[in-house]
Amino acid sequence: MLDESRYQQLADVAFRRIEDAFKDVDAEDVDLERSGDVVTLTFRSGARCVINTQRPTRQIWLAANARAWHFDYDAASESWKDDKGREGDLFTQIAQIVTAAGVPITV
Predict the structure, then answer these.
(1) pLDDT digit string (tens) for 16-46?
(2) So where are the chain's domains?
(3) Looking at domain 4-100, does it have CATH number 3.40.50.300?
(4) Burial of 5 (C-beta count, 10 Å sphere; 0-12/13-18/19+)
(5) Res 101: pLDDT
């Protein structure tokens, strides 16, 4: 398991990557708001996607469309992988959710 300092460093990098991906997206289509360890994406339809850190488990959690995913950092691939091995990595899943909401994006 990652120590607290390394986990926070990796989570911060992930959150910056998410924020950077939405810099040029019209806020009318997807509004990104970050408050501490929580990023909320609000879509034109009013639907939301929430990404947040979970320090006790050293994970990043994602919730959208009445579903939830938990991601662990995988040092071998240097990515945040679904802890159930279902749906790839954090950034791919976010891109799929946002694209399904009508805003094609690469995270």
Answers:
(1) 999 999 999 999 999 999 999 999 999 999 9
(2) 4-100
(3) no
(4) exposed
(5) 92
Q: pLDDT-derived band of residue 87, with 50, 70 and 90 as boundaries?
A: low
Tokens of 70: 């938990």
Buried b vs exposed e over 25-49: b needs ≥16 C-beta within 10 Å?
beeeebebeeeeeebebbbeeeeeb
| Burial of 93 (C-beta count, 10 Å sphere; 0-12/13-18/19+) | buried
- The model's pTM is 0.92
